[in-house]
Amino acid sequence: MLRKIDKLVQSFVDQASKEGFELFLSPGAETLRDFSQINSVVFFQAKNGQLFKLRDDYTTSVVEFFNKNLPNSLKVWYSGFVYRYDQMGQIQSNFQLGLEIVPYRSVQDSFVVLRVLIESVLHSLTDQLLIEMGDSRVIEKCVQHVPKKFRKKLLELIDRKDVSELEFFASLNNLDLSDVLKLVEASFTRRGVNQLKEFELESYIEREIVEVVEFLSGFPGVTVEIDFSLARTVEEYDGPTFIFFDLKDPALIAAGGRYRVNENALGVGGTIFLEERAWSR
Fold it and tell me: Before 103, cis peptide (omega within 30)?
């Protein structure tokens, strides 16, 4: 597996460099200034009493750098470890290999990000890739009436695609989740690109999805399906999203999409994930 990882990193860096991406460096630990994060990030206390948090996501670091320094644009790639708590409260380390373009200017930016990710993965990890396409605006429309105090739990339930849990959650909290339930049920029964019309999407959303799907269809070994129930950090995303799965050795490989950087700018990026078992076996 280590040989595959080495091949992946080399291929990724070569592809990113050819597309004009530059290396982004960020400290693995930063001063914890926002104490509302204390229950969600991995942190430690230095001998002088100062609190530091370990990096939990590279995209967040890129966005913070852009908003703090206000460069005209960023086109960067990165690699390194991130640290998060799992559902059991245990610290998990993951290796991220990704790239970001800020600000987003056109769908061509999405194509560049996707091309680097796809060609790197197909060259080193697998020759059969499933890409699930979604759009955060579709699911956001379905949950916009839900009070914010229920949002996080609701998105977790949507990600699990458990219809019975969603129905119980709706009944328990007196919520109308009929549109959410339709999306989740459709994620099992209407995944074909040719079924887009059945979702009655806004025309501009459908056009964007079709453009990206047509681009992805040009890669041999890539299968594209639609899943509008993708709820990964939906409040950060603003537009098309994607998830890569290895069809030979079923596993999540990568994810990304377009996201909100600030009130005036969007960004687009994607990250390849390698869990600890990938390099420790």
Answer: yes
